[in-house]
Amino acid sequence: MIHNVDSFVEKHQLIQPKSTVVVAVSGGPDSMALLHYFLQKKEQWQLSIIAASVDHGLRGEHSLADLNYVKKTAEQWNINFFGTSVDVQSYKQQQGVGTQEAARVLRYQYFHQVMTEVNADVLAFAHHGDDQAETLFMQMVRSARPEAVQGMPIKRPFGTGSIIRPFLCVAKQELLHYCEQHQIGFKLDASNEETNYTRNAFRKHIMPLLKEQNPKIHLHMQAMSERVRDDYSYITKQAEEVLKPMRFSSEKGKRVEFSISTFKSHPPALQRSAFHLILNYLYDNQTEDISYLHEEMFMNLLKEQKPNAELDLPHELKVVRAYDELTFSFHSSEDICPYSHLIDIGERLELKDGHVLTLEQCPARSDENRYEFICDSHHVKLPLIVRSRKQGDRMKLRGMNGSKKVKDIFIDKKIPAQLRKSWPLVTDSDGRILWVIGLKKGEGCAGEGSGTWLRLRYTKKEDT
User: Fold this and answer.
1) What is the DSSP letter of 122?
2) Is 431 labelled as part of a ligand binding site?
3) Is 27 annotated as a binding residue?
4) What is its EC number (predicted)?
5) What is the DSSP letter of 27?
6) Do 189 and 79 share a structural domain?
7) In the chain, is it the N or the C terminus that has fewer CB atoms within a 10 Å radius of its CB?
8) Sign of CA dihedral 310, 312, 318, 319
9) How many domains does one find in the chain?
């Protein structure tokens, strides 16, 4: 076993000479074997070894006895010891999490504290190959996403250095044999026999069957884990390139926008990976509520034939398709509140989105651009009104007979559905629509009228 672990450590460069190693020790056979393994390597690798143990207080005197046993053994082996007791039940109630999650959080918090205090290079866990196989099968049952089925990492950043798992290459039975061979005592946690916890159920009922079919299943699963991680790392880097043309914004809530045609030019594997990278950004990497079903709904949205479509994701995240544009944003009722504002000659009006309207006199009718509206004051009733669209709005367009629905103007101009409710319209005090800003202009002038001319100018926020 020692040779296999040595080769595994060297292959993955888990330990460097003169490292300070914190070993997480529960008192069970796996962690006691790990502590003894590092003790054997102490002189060869010039290591500084610290044993760290946490009493979760879930088994009363028994769990405290385990902590004291680890402390006593560390003293006998001349190893520095750090230990603590934590209140899992209180944390569980305060945070509204399960027992296992509460215990894990508090345990890792303490290990982080110990690593910082001793400036450790690595924190070593005793997870073994059977643990890895259990983890992978549990992940397969819970998720159909390949990136969610990677198992425990051999090495990952943590605290002042890294977490390492040198025993992922060996089976549980090998560790028990190692303890027997070296006369290493250990404590057994009776809760490991209870099958109300998912992992224990897999350990008791699933793993024995798999071991019967293939005694080396733990090696196969570890090899699979390493390969999946390598493949996913490569795909993720490629998917990051897909994200480069996208527009990411954190103003007034996180938001992502991109071209659907550009996005669909990439292979489906990269589209899926990019989708999850987007969610990682929007959810701050808290994507536990996202399943493969959400992924499929997103992929179907990309294929949607309708020019406007929407998809609701957890925590009020909305995905909106508008022609060739796709937008991820968090829903807010404030974004669609109707509004109406008055503006008179000489006044300046700033809209909620930061864009600005000004109304001023001008000496004579002059040329106007897309964001200016010139009208004869004798043919409009002041003050003017700037408002959002209402159901059934119609306007008479310049140079055209009859009227046209504002809704049809939006459709002709391919304005995304989510923007239409807040798009600014200008009317006079009689309610006559003069201007759908930036899109269409209505009546409001009389040829070369002799009255006072008014210029209404719309300035975008970025231009102010």
Assistant:
1) E
2) no
3) yes
4) 6.3.4.19
5) S
6) yes
7) C
8) negative
9) 3
* Position 239 in a domain: no
Say yes or no: 251 and 204 in one domain: no
Residue at 237 is within a domain = no
Helix (H) or strand (E) holding 374: strand 372-376
Q: Is 29 annotated as a binding residue?
A: yes
Residue 26 annotated as part of some ligand binding site: yes
Question: Amino acid letter at 439?
Answer: L
7 is in an annotated binding site: no
Query: What is the residue range of 169's domain?
Result: 2-231
| pLDDT tens, the chain, 464 aa long | 899 999 999 999 999 999 999 999 999 999 999 999 999 999 999 999 999 999 987 877 888 899 999 999 999 999 999 999 988 899 888 888 888 889 999 999 999 999 999 999 999 999 999 999 999 998 888 776 777 788 999 999 999 999 999 999 999 999 999 999 999 999 887 665 555 567 888 888 888 998 899 999 999 999 999 999 999 999 999 999 999 999 998 876 789 999 999 999 999 999 999 999 999 999 888 777 788 888 999 999 999 888 888 899 988 899 999 889 999 998 654 456 889 999 999 999 998 888 999 999 887 666 788 899 988 888 888 999 999 999 999 999 877 777 899 999 998 888 877 788 889 999 999 999 999 999 999 876 555 555 678 899 999 876 65
What is the C-alpha to C-alpha distance for residues 273 and 280, in angstroms, rounded to an integer? Answer: 11
Q: Where are the alpha helices (DSSP H) in 77-128?
A: 88-95, 99-118
Nearest-angstrom CA–CA distance, 62 and 74: 19
Pairing of strands 247-249, 255-259: antiparallel
Cα 421 to chain centroid, rounded? 29
